[in-house]
Design goal:
278 residues; alpha/beta; Rossmann fold; globular
């Protein structure tokens, strides 16, 4: 028995130490705020955009890009884009051009501490309030909910899905969605067995998609090495209808811009149906 204790005690202490480090630093493993690098949509030939700022619910100043076609159209879809945990506006310059070419007016916003937005603690509740503030900014411009489509990528998919439980957009598009932070932890560290109640920011997309009322289009990169497609499938299986699923062939997690125009038709067909329903 004594030799077994000699082995088990240090192993147990090592495990508890690693678990404690994970729990104490979990937000550093979720959020990766970065500064702007100076790139803007002009690099991709898009000049119809302007910098905007507005406050979140707690007064934190957020920055974004408002991209608007020169000829106003009261029937044009308006996109609110929620980016992933390591993105910022500069890194979305190409995506901005794609959204414009698809036919959207679009608002892209940096959460607090990202890009040029004001520094403030990052939590699930905080970034959720930032996304809601962006949605309210669109409404304050007189844009009806029946024209707004919310699109979220990666961690932003969970943020977008939660937003859709609080407001009533015309449609919801989720790209590369995780099921939850707990699910991701089990995927990346299956041996760690982190208890769910010790995860502070749950980003439980599986639950949020059961609570929305708008149509859902969900798509996932076939060769996603960041969020395996199986986790996205779990979200879709739980989602209430109406819903559509699409696999983007032969790309990884961040590669959608390289094939985006091949998928313009199914995406915009979905958006058209959403707007018709309103």
């Amino acid at each position: 028995m004594r030799p077994l204790k000699i082995v088990l005690i240090p192993l147990t202490l090592a495990y508890l130490t690693i678990l404690g480090l994970y729990i104490g630093n979990q937000r550093k493993l979720i959020y990766f705020p970065t500064k702007l690098n100076g790139t803007t949509p002009t690099k991709y030939g898009l000049t119809h955009f302007k910098d905007v700022t507005f406050p979140s619910s707690d007064g934190v100043t957020l920055t974004g890009w408002w991209i608007e076609h020169p000829h106003k159209d009261p029937k044009r879809p308006v996109l609110l884009y929620c980016h992933g945990n390591a993105a910022n506006l500069s890194l979305l310059s190409e995506v901005s051009r794609i959204f414009y070419d698809f036919g959207f007016d679009a608002l892209l916003v940096d959460y607090r501490s990202y890009g040029s937005s004001q520094k403030a603690p990052l939590t699930e509740e905080a970034v959720g309030e930032d996304a809601l503030a962006a949605y309210r900014w669109l409404q304050a411009k007189g844009i009806p909910e029946g024209r707004i489509v919310v699109w979220g990528h990666s961690l932003g998919a969970a943020i977008a899905a939660k937003l859709a439980t609080r407001v009533n957009p015309a449609g919801l598009i989720l790209e590369g969605a995780l099921d939850s932070v707990n699910g991701m932890a089990r995927e990346k560290f299956p041996w760690l067995l982190v208890p769910g109640f010790l995860i502070w920011d749950k980003f439980d997309a599986e639950r949020y998609v059961t609570q929305r009322a708008c149509p859902l289009l969900q798509f996932h990169a076939e060769k996603d090495t960041i969020i395996p497609i199986e986790l996205g499938e779990k979200v879709f299986e739980k989602a209430a209808g109406p819903k559509q699923w699409m696999v983007v062939k032969d790309i990884d997690h961040n590669d959608f811009p390289s094939v985006a125009y091949q998928y313009k038709k199914p995406i915009m067909d979905f958006v058209g149906e959403c707007l018709k329903a309103k």
